[in-house]
Amino acid sequence: MLLGVLLFRSERKNILHFILTGLIWGFALSVRGIGATLFLASGFIFFHSIFRYVMKKEDRSQLLASVKKSSIVVSSAILFYLLMNAVLFPIPSSGILKFYADAVSGENFAKWLLLNLDYYYYVFLNFFATMGGSWLWLCTFSKFILLSLIPIGIVMTWYRRKGFDDWLFIAYLLVLFIYPYLGGGFRFLLPVMPLILKYIYTGFSSLISLSKVRSSLPGISFFLIILFQYTPGIIGQVNSMDYSEEGPQEEPAVEAFEYISHLPDEAVVVFLKPRALSFYSGKRAAYVTRNVKPDEIRDLFKRMNAHYFLLCSQNEEVNDVILKKFIVDHKSELKLIWHNNNFELYYDLN
């Protein structure tokens, strides 16, 4: 997605460059649905250009150039996406769109906005909470300084003139903050982390300029303090490299994926982390969104041709409450065919 931003921001004006940018956008959308924020940002740019034209802050040639660029990029992206997902690797787009539509259907967006704001506020702060003990004061001080620099950098950047990356930042956070999910962690901030760092740098450099300090010493010192905070974490990572992290590399998970890899080719396994299961076992996977009604789950599994159900009892991150309840409610119709200390695999006898 970052590459798509850099290409769109480029000053090049030839059609081939616009088409290449569109291909990157289409690929980004194919990889993750969040790639749609690129298109949303281009829509913001389009309406902003019209607004500037109406307010006589932009002439007709600038407006036409903006419309031409956006039209070619978006058209190329959609065509490439359809080529990838409808021709070369047929995936029903209606299913993907329905998945996201079902995920947000009936949700209270105002509630989720507040929940996500609170959640990602602490996610960001905790990313910089790298030291404890007698050094806790240092990372506490620096993480709040970094957080306070973001709005300053945003104001300074947007005051000069918003670029495409700034519109993308708005689009991404808009989607992130209203999407009804509180389990993304810092990885959901990674796509816009370069922009957050840009705002931090802009905010810091603006304050230095206002203070009329000509020396680069404050900036270098602050940067070294941030790096120093990560020293314990880096040492800890090096010392623990011989141990498996909690997740798919743990021995119980390896055993589970190994067993599932020998299931029939047509097997569809229901698991809370379907992408991980599919990647490590080579089998098709699915899972149940929380807004599916309990009396609809059985029919949903039949439509997906899903007859295998994997539960994990030792890791809270993959504790699928909905699937557990389904198994309890239909225990007479299911058979436990394999298990270890962490996982249980059930088979639907019907």
Task: Give structural notes.
- With 350 residues, the protein is an alpha/beta fold.
- The protein folds into 3 domains: 91 residues; 130 residues, no CATH class; 98 residues, D-Maltodextrin-Binding Protein, domain 2.
- 63% of the residues lie in helices and 7% in strands.
- A 5-stranded mixed sheet has the order 2-1-3-5-4, sandwiched between helices.
- Strand 1, helix 13 and strand 2 form a beta-alpha-beta unit.
- Helix 3 runs antiparallel to helix 4 and helix 3 crosses helix 8.
- The longest helix has 29 residues.
- The two termini are 44 Å apart.
- 21% of the residues are buried.
- Helix/strand class: alpha/beta
Unreliable segments of 5+ consecutive residues: none
Helix tally equals 15
- Compressed to H and E, one letter per element, the order equals HHHHHHHHHHHHEHEHEHEE
Order of strands in the sheet with the most strands?
2-1-3-5-4
Q: What can be said about the biggest beta sheet?
A: 5 strands, mixed
What general form does the structure show? globular
Computed over alpha carbons, the radius of gyration is 24 Å
Kindly give the count of domains: 3
State the end-to-end distance: 44 Å
| Total number of strands | 5
Helix content: 55-70%
Look at the structure and give the mean pLDDT: 83
β-strand amount: 5-15%
